[in-house]
Amino acid sequence: MNTSNNRRLVLLLLAGVVTLIALYVFRGQEHNMPPQGGAVSDTGSNAGSGSATERKVLYWHDPMVPGFKSDKPGKSPFMDMELVPVYADEASAGIQVRPEVSSSLGIRLAKVARLRPTLRLSATGYLTTGGPSASALVDLYDRAADAVRAGQRAEVSIASLAGAPLQATVTQVSRDFGIGARGAKATLRITSRQGAPHGAPQAPSRNPPRAGDLVNAEIVIPATRTMLIVPAEAVIRAGDAPRVVRALDEGRFESVTVVAGESYHEGIAILRGLAEGDRIVVSGQFLLDSESGARAGFGRMENAGGDRP
């Protein structure tokens, strides 16, 4: 009898111990579990905290129609497709244009090149000698006249001779200090006939140019050093500072503020803002610049608004 009671008592004690252990383990797991409603989601680790991971929509747009923006989602007014959201965290990465849209907009690219550009100095004068070995004397009044040197290349158009310009070489430069003005005169020796390579001998002409014929010349003045050059059409001068639209990877574009230098025959010098080899837009850039600027502006407004109490 006593043995049976003792056995029952031991079993009850063991059951109690197991129960206590189970309760202890369950309580520990419950304490480590996140509270209900606090699961991590795209809007943050706390349901009502307004987490920083939440993506803010700046506006909605139609990727097929750059420049169009809407302040609410919905169908595109241009085609049967949903508008696409543009997020604040994408504002600094420029805009993305699909290849088919880029093609339809006629977007063309060029590379920023480092080269030694040239100035083209226009001058007028007259022939001093006629015939196959004609020479011209031209007046120089431009500020670049001081850079004209013997040996530089020139192109000469003779009023009495139709056709492409003739190749010539500067043989002499003389300073001319007139009353109230400073200029110079340059002597140009014509070295090739129309359409012939530079330095090729001239063929006899039925109507050779004569001394006294009027001429228009362009003297080619090379720069003293190499510099970064972009096509003139790539530079957007509207607004506070000149800008260039730079092409990024995966069809993205961004507007870049640049410091522009002098204009040359080959393009415009860029002193700051671009690097050699950068791909830039030379056609369709105004539309891309407008879209990129608007997106950056929305991003700045969103950031300013977030700082308010």
Name the shape in a single word. elongated
Compute the number of helices: 3
Largest sheet: 6 strands, antiparallel, barrel
Q: List segments where confidence is low: pLDDT < 50 over at least 5 consecutive residues.
A: 18-52, 195-204, 297-309
Strand order of the largest sheet: 6-7-10-9-8-11
CATH topology of the largest domain: Elongation Factor Tu (Ef-tu), domain 3
Summed over residues and divided by their number, the pLDDT gives a mean of: 75
* Oligomeric state of shown chains: single chain
Radius of gyration of CA atoms, rounded to a whole number: 38 Å
Characterize the structure shown.
With 309 residues, the chain is an alpha+beta fold. It is built from three helices and 17 strands. The chain has a six-stranded antiparallel barrel with strand order 6-7-10-9-8-11. It has a four-stranded antiparallel beta sheet with strand order 5-12-16-15, with no helix packed on it. The chain has a three-stranded antiparallel beta sheet with strand order 3-14-13, covered by helices on one side.
